[in-house]
Amino acid sequence: MKAALLGGIFLLEVALLAAAGFWGGTLDAGWPVRLLAGLGAPLVMAVVWGLFCSPRATVRLPAPAKLGVQSACFLTGGVLLTLTGHFPAGAVLVLLWAVTKTLLTRAAPDRGTADLGSGGPLRGPFPSKIWCEMRAKGHSQDSFPERPIGRTLRR
Protein backbone atom coordinates (compact mmCIF):
# COMPACT_ATOMS: atom_id res chain seq x y z
CA MET A 1 0.00 0.00 0.00
CA LYS A 2 2.83 2.38 0.86
CA ALA A 3 4.42 1.90 -2.59
CA ALA A 4 1.12 2.70 -4.32
CA LEU A 5 0.68 5.83 -2.22
CA LEU A 6 4.23 6.97 -2.92
CA GLY A 7 3.62 6.39 -6.63
CA GLY A 8 0.43 8.43 -6.40
CA ILE A 9 2.27 11.27 -4.66
CA PHE A 10 4.91 11.22 -7.41
CA LEU A 11 2.26 11.41 -10.15
CA LEU A 12 0.60 14.31 -8.33
CA GLU A 13 3.96 16.10 -8.16
CA VAL A 14 4.33 15.69 -11.92
CA ALA A 15 0.77 16.99 -12.37
CA LEU A 16 1.71 19.98 -10.21
CA LEU A 17 4.59 20.83 -12.56
CA ALA A 18 2.30 20.34 -15.56
CA ALA A 19 -0.28 22.70 -14.01
CA ALA A 20 2.37 25.40 -13.52
CA GLY A 21 3.52 25.01 -17.13
CA PHE A 22 -0.05 25.04 -18.41
CA TRP A 23 -0.75 28.28 -16.53
CA GLY A 24 2.31 29.93 -18.08
CA GLY A 25 1.38 28.77 -21.54
CA THR A 26 -2.15 30.16 -21.32
CA LEU A 27 -1.27 33.70 -20.22
CA ASP A 28 -2.78 36.47 -22.28
CA ALA A 29 0.55 37.86 -23.44
CA GLY A 30 2.99 37.53 -26.29
CA TRP A 31 4.69 34.24 -27.01
CA PRO A 32 8.01 35.19 -25.31
CA VAL A 33 6.21 35.88 -22.03
CA ARG A 34 4.16 32.69 -22.34
CA LEU A 35 7.31 30.69 -23.09
CA LEU A 36 9.17 32.17 -20.12
CA ALA A 37 6.23 31.65 -17.77
CA GLY A 38 5.49 28.19 -19.13
CA LEU A 39 9.07 27.07 -18.50
CA GLY A 40 9.85 29.28 -15.51
CA ALA A 41 6.87 28.45 -13.28
CA PRO A 42 7.53 24.68 -13.27
CA LEU A 43 11.23 25.37 -12.80
CA VAL A 44 10.55 27.51 -9.73
CA MET A 45 8.23 24.82 -8.34
CA ALA A 46 10.82 22.11 -8.98
CA VAL A 47 13.59 24.13 -7.30
CA VAL A 48 11.44 24.81 -4.22
CA TRP A 49 10.42 21.15 -4.06
CA GLY A 50 14.01 19.98 -4.49
CA LEU A 51 15.35 22.33 -1.84
CA PHE A 52 12.76 21.62 0.85
CA CYS A 53 10.51 18.63 0.09
CA SER A 54 12.37 15.91 -1.79
CA PRO A 55 13.78 12.87 0.02
CA ARG A 56 17.29 14.23 -0.65
CA ALA A 57 16.40 17.84 0.12
CA THR A 58 19.24 20.31 0.50
CA VAL A 59 17.49 22.06 3.40
CA ARG A 60 16.22 19.62 6.03
CA LEU A 61 12.98 20.86 7.55
CA PRO A 62 11.05 19.46 10.49
CA ALA A 63 8.03 17.42 9.41
CA PRO A 64 5.43 20.18 10.07
CA ALA A 65 7.43 22.77 8.11
CA LYS A 66 7.97 20.33 5.24
CA LEU A 67 4.23 19.64 5.16
CA GLY A 68 3.62 23.39 5.08
CA VAL A 69 5.88 23.86 2.05
CA GLN A 70 4.25 20.90 0.28
CA SER A 71 0.81 22.31 1.04
CA ALA A 72 1.82 25.73 -0.28
CA CYS A 73 3.12 24.18 -3.51
CA PHE A 74 -0.06 22.19 -4.13
CA LEU A 75 -2.33 25.08 -3.20
CA THR A 76 -0.36 27.24 -5.64
CA GLY A 77 -0.88 24.59 -8.31
CA GLY A 78 -4.61 24.55 -7.59
CA VAL A 79 -4.79 28.35 -7.78
CA LEU A 80 -2.85 28.37 -11.06
CA LEU A 81 -5.28 25.86 -12.59
CA THR A 82 -8.19 27.96 -11.32
CA LEU A 83 -6.67 31.06 -12.95
CA THR A 84 -6.68 29.22 -16.29
CA GLY A 85 -10.43 28.59 -15.90
CA HIS A 86 -10.12 24.98 -14.73
CA PHE A 87 -11.40 25.22 -11.16
CA PRO A 88 -12.52 21.57 -10.93
CA ALA A 89 -9.07 20.36 -12.02
CA GLY A 90 -7.39 22.61 -9.46
CA ALA A 91 -9.68 21.41 -6.69
CA VAL A 92 -9.13 17.76 -7.65
CA LEU A 93 -5.35 18.24 -7.66
CA VAL A 94 -5.36 19.69 -4.13
CA LEU A 95 -7.90 17.21 -2.75
CA LEU A 96 -6.14 14.17 -4.24
CA TRP A 97 -2.85 15.33 -2.76
CA ALA A 98 -4.43 15.94 0.66
CA VAL A 99 -6.11 12.51 0.73
CA THR A 100 -3.03 10.68 -0.53
CA LYS A 101 -0.74 12.51 1.89
CA THR A 102 -3.09 11.74 4.79
CA LEU A 103 -3.25 8.05 3.88
CA LEU A 104 0.52 7.92 3.47
CA THR A 105 1.07 9.60 6.83
CA ARG A 106 -1.24 7.11 8.52
CA ALA A 107 0.32 4.14 6.71
CA ALA A 108 3.92 5.13 7.53
CA PRO A 109 4.25 7.91 10.10
CA ASP A 110 7.43 9.95 9.99
CA ARG A 111 9.43 8.64 12.91
CA GLY A 112 12.17 11.24 12.68
CA THR A 113 14.81 10.02 15.10
CA ALA A 114 14.63 6.89 17.20
CA ASP A 115 15.08 7.09 20.94
CA LEU A 116 16.62 4.12 22.72
CA GLY A 117 16.35 5.11 26.34
CA SER A 118 18.89 7.28 28.10
CA GLY A 119 21.30 7.31 25.16
CA GLY A 120 19.25 9.88 23.28
CA PRO A 121 18.25 10.09 19.65
CA LEU A 122 20.26 8.38 16.95
CA ARG A 123 22.10 10.56 14.47
CA GLY A 124 22.43 9.64 10.85
CA PRO A 125 22.00 6.23 9.24
CA PHE A 126 23.10 4.07 12.17
CA PRO A 127 21.71 0.51 12.39
CA SER A 128 20.14 -0.32 15.73
CA LYS A 129 22.04 -3.63 15.94
CA ILE A 130 25.37 -1.81 15.92
CA TRP A 131 23.97 0.76 18.34
CA CYS A 132 22.97 -1.98 20.79
CA GLU A 133 26.34 -3.74 20.49
CA MET A 134 28.29 -0.53 21.11
CA ARG A 135 25.94 0.45 23.93
CA ALA A 136 26.54 -2.94 25.58
CA LYS A 137 30.30 -2.29 25.41
CA GLY A 138 29.84 0.98 27.33
CA HIS A 139 30.04 3.51 24.51
CA SER A 140 27.95 6.67 24.77
CA GLN A 141 25.95 8.27 21.96
CA ASP A 142 28.46 11.14 21.65
CA SER A 143 31.40 8.81 21.01
CA PHE A 144 29.78 7.25 17.94
CA PRO A 145 30.86 8.14 14.42
CA GLU A 146 28.26 9.62 12.08
CA ARG A 147 28.26 6.45 9.96
CA PRO A 148 29.09 2.87 10.80
CA ILE A 149 32.70 1.96 10.26
CA GLY A 150 33.14 -0.83 7.73
CA ARG A 151 36.12 -2.74 6.42
CA THR A 152 38.86 -0.69 4.85
CA LEU A 153 40.55 -1.78 1.68
CA ARG A 154 44.31 -2.14 1.76
CA ARG A 155 46.36 -1.35 -1.30
The tally of helices reads 5
N to C succession of SSEs: HHHHH
Which percent bin holds the helix content? Answer: 55-70%
Alpha carbon gap, first and last residue: 46 Å
Please mark out the parts with pLDDT under 50 across 5 or more consecutive residues, or reply none.
111-126
Mean pLDDT: 81
Main sheet properties: none
Structural class: mainly alpha
Shape: elongated
Determine the strand fraction and express it as a percent band: under 5%
Q: What would you report as the Rg, rounded to the nearest angstrom?
A: 22 Å
DSSP strand tally: 0
Give an overview of the whole structure.
The chain is an all-alpha fold and 155 residues long. Helix content is 63%, strand content 0%. It contains 5 helices and no strands. The protein is elongated. The protein starts with a helix and ends in a 19-residue tail after the last helix. The model is unreliable at 111-126 (pLDDT under 50).
